[in-house]
Fold:
Amino acid sequence: MKTSEARRALQLCAPVGEWANIEAAAGTEAAPLRRFSMVAYTGGAMALAGWPHPVVVDLAGLQISARSRPILKDHNRSLIVGHTDSVAVQGSNLLVTGVISGAGPVAREIVESSRNGFPWQASLGALAERVELVPKGRKAAANGREFEGPVHIARKATLGEISFVALGADEDTSAQVAATAADIKEDVMDFEKWLEAKGFVAADLSDAQRASLQAMYDAEQKRPGTQGDPTNDASDAADDGKPTDGADVVSELRAQAAAETKRIAEIRRLCAGKHADIEAKAIEEGWDAPRTELELLRVQRPTVTGVRRGAEPPTGKALEAALLLNYNIAPEDRVAKWYDARTMEAALSRDLRRAGLHTVFHEIIRAAGGHAAVAGFDDDTIRAAFVAEQRLIQAAYGFSTISLSGILSNVANKAMLAAYEAVESVVAQFCSETDVNDFKEVTRYRLTGNGVFERVGPDGELKHATLTEESYKNRIETFGRMIALTRQMIINDDLGAFLQIPRIIGRMSALKREEAVFELLLSNPSSFFSTTNKNYISGADTALSIDALEMAEQKFLDQTDVDGKPILIRPALLLVPTSLAVTARRLFNETRVNETTDTGKPKPADNPFAGMFRPAVSPYLNAQGLAGSSAKAWYLFASPADVAAIEVAYLRGRRTPTIESGETSFNTLGMQWRGYFDFGVALQDFRAAVKSKGEA
Structure:
């Protein structure tokens, strides 16, 4: 799919975490700022507005900018609250911390209402660039778990901004805002007394638990107002004096200590005393079990040799661009419009100049810390790549730039689109295009004003104009085929054979749309072209000529509204079968056309229609396989930007075919995709076209 077409807005809701103060820098008098932290997303399915099914954001494909992200209220860019200083994916969680740096009333509202106990929720704005629909009865993996359809999985998305909202998409989320030390009056105590006050026994704590609690204690002591500062006593006295619920704080600390103990135990079990350096680093940096396991795989297995000798492995984008170039799917200048300069440089490098299917499979194995021999590509290599793909998905950290199904899906999609766009479409020249939300039949209305402006009397009163409704119906349908990457294609390193299928599907999609429009046009349902509608001429003198064009143009100009007033629609396009292509081009290009009458008398040579009606030629008009076809009939159409005679409707703005990856059956060692196109056609306004039979 094209990026601009795949993007869709997401808003993910999660609880806002703890508030804390930031002390002003030494030597300054700046007021302390509030901080916040949140688990913004836990990897599950959420019900979002505008989406027909629950949505899962695959954290492995979530793009997070290195720059700070804005914090807003209600996704309104003018309501600034602050900014982030850390956004990170850890396991199946998205962790966010930031500062309330806004200086206006919105930021103060957030802080004050939180102090009063208002349960704010967090809502993340993101753009979904590649979405996989898992149908009912099927399952798909994301964020280390399995989801049963129907569900949308955003395999690629870009994080935008974070907002505070009163009520988000998930009503079960809640916000717990802990009071800052400035809000609580307490005496200074040492660490041992602090532990005892929180309900802990110092002798029972492990080193890791003690270190975590020590950090919490140190953070509390650094907060303004906890050291008995007399400047804060007055503000404390001005507060409402409500006590803090210590039980919640103790429960939270105990839960954190238990989780930390469990994490460290799992890391030590995986390392088994054989990798002390990895064990120490994992504990210190807060790694989870999947990340630790992958790091151990990297150490225990040698990296792939002979696939890439550079210092850095190629990204998924670089592999995509290399495959597009190596298999001549698109010229280099066009591929360069799809990818940035750095990606193109990697794709054109010596390492990827001959990259094929085997290269992609090897790089997937390598990215997961595995090893695959360059020679002797076999079933074991294919299975190893599939297993590596699942490990990368489950780990959901650091490997979002490369995916086996993602690379092949994007390459297949671009091959399909190139073939789709290569078909010279006539339909797009005289049909309007619109979007619908579902597959239900829709009734569309064209409002036509009656009459013209009338003179305003001395009293200044304006008379009301009336509108008449003219309706027509449309319904979209789905057209598609399956695509398979077989075991034989993989072993033969034959991406070219695989890409023939999406190329065919792209071309078939364009032809299907063309065929659907002309089948409707030629069938003339409900006598769309008729003398009653004043848009049909017939007789021996209607064969394509200057005189016949004059008759058809007059039909256009004489069209009226329901009150019999002219509506001033002019023809813009001359649609002809292939048998009349040369005649149509001559009438458009030549200023002098020699014609004779049936009696052989000469006629004036001047062509009054030169350059007026742009010719369009379609073999569907005289195709013998279509009912109503004719080698002599021709049409005049108005510009669809003015009034359209035919409408083509698409599902939710997707005006090109779509390719999605899917799972093969258990006994099939391969991969598969489905290509489909959702559209429908309908006749719209009879006054926007005139048909000439071209014969008696």
